[in-house]
């Protein structure tokens, strides 16, 4: 059973999605037994075509494949065949379509609306902090207005399996409790400064801007970020 697709880091509660999927499964197949549940994260191109080839600005030496669009088990194999042929001088006729990709008008529109969504998420994540008394611009804290600052919060210790983002001084902080251990991290994604969101099903910190994901301890799980979330106070 699968469903409830959504952008990484933008669901209110991933656990809720999973629960409703399990309810639906139980209705369709009474008496069936749940053995495993998981989420997959997929990269999709705006024109929904997978892509592989030479990496732009890679000086012709770096090849890549992406945008498998939920079909990684087949598209990744196709990409590996195509890349191997490119390197070894072979020719796979079906790869021409992928090599000469054209962005259609609808694809270009999708890209515009996708980027508008990213900008909106960046603004809303930092906007919540601004509402708490910080002045921000383009994801950067400009200055704090001491008169507007609310009193320092009591130490935040979320319930088991929960995470919370709040402001400590001028710093956005992400705190979670997993298996009895509470970790306090910087809530600012190390890619381009999005404010991370707690994934209550996978128990990870997910960035709503471009989909980077971090463990509850801040370890990088998935890019485009390349660095861990540092402990709070070291960002
Ligand atoms: S800002 Fe977080 S993934 Fe880009």
Radius of gyration: 21 Å
Spans of 5+ residues with little confidence (pLDDT < 50)?
145-152
The first-level CATH class of the domain at 146-222 is given as Mainly Beta
Q: Give the CA-based shape.
A: globular
Put simply, the count of helices is 4
Instruction: Please describe the biggest sheet, giving its number of strands, its sense, and whether it closes into a barrel.
Output: 4 strands, antiparallel
The quaternary state of the protein chains shown equals: single chain
**What string, H for helix and E for strand, traces the elements in order?**
HEEHHHEEEEEEEEE
Task: Give the termini separation.
Answer: 40 Å
Going across the major beta sheet, what is the strand order? Answer: 8-9-10-11
CATH architecture of the domain at 146-222: 3-layer Sandwich
Under CATH, the homologous superfamily of the domain at 146-222 reads: Rieske [2Fe-2S] iron-sulphur domain
Task: Provide the residue-averaged pLDDT.
Answer: 81
Bound molecules: FE2/S2 (inorganic) cluster
Strand content: 15-25%
Q: What's the CATH topology label of the domain at 146-222?
A: Rieske Iron-sulfur Protein
Number of strands: 11
Please identify the structural class as seen in this structure.
alpha+beta
- Tell me the helix content: 25-40%
């Amino acid at each position: 059973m699968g469903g409830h697709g959504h952008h990484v880091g933008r669901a209110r509660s991933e656990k809720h999605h999973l629960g409703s999927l399990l309810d639906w499964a139980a209705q369709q197949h009474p008496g069936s037994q749940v053995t495993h549940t998981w989420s997959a994260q997929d990269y999709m191109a705006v024109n929904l075509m997978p892509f592989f080839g030479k990496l732009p600005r890679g000086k012709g030496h770096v090849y890549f494949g992406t945008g498998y669009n939920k079909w990684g088990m087949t598209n990744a194999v196709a990409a590996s065949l195509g890349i191997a042929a490119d390197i070894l001088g072979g020719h796979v006729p079906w790869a021409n379509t992928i090599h000469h990709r054209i962005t259609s008008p609808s694809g270009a529109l999708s890209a515009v609306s996708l980027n508008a969504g990213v900008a909106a998420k960046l603004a809303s994540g930092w906007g919540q902090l601004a509402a708490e008394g910080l002045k921000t611009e383009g994801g950067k804290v400009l200055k704090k207005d001491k008169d507007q600052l609310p009193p320092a919060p009591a130490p935040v210790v979320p319930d088991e399996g929960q995470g919370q983002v709040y402001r400590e001084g001028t710093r956005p902080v992400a705190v979670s409790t997993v298996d009895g251990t509470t970790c306090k991290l910087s809530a600012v994604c190390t890619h381009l400064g999005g404010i991370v969101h707690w994934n209550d099903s996978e128990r990870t910190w997910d960035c709503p801007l471009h989909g980077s994901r971090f463990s509850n301890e801040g370890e990088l799980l998935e890019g485009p970020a390349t660095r861990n979330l540092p402990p709070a106070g070291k960002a």
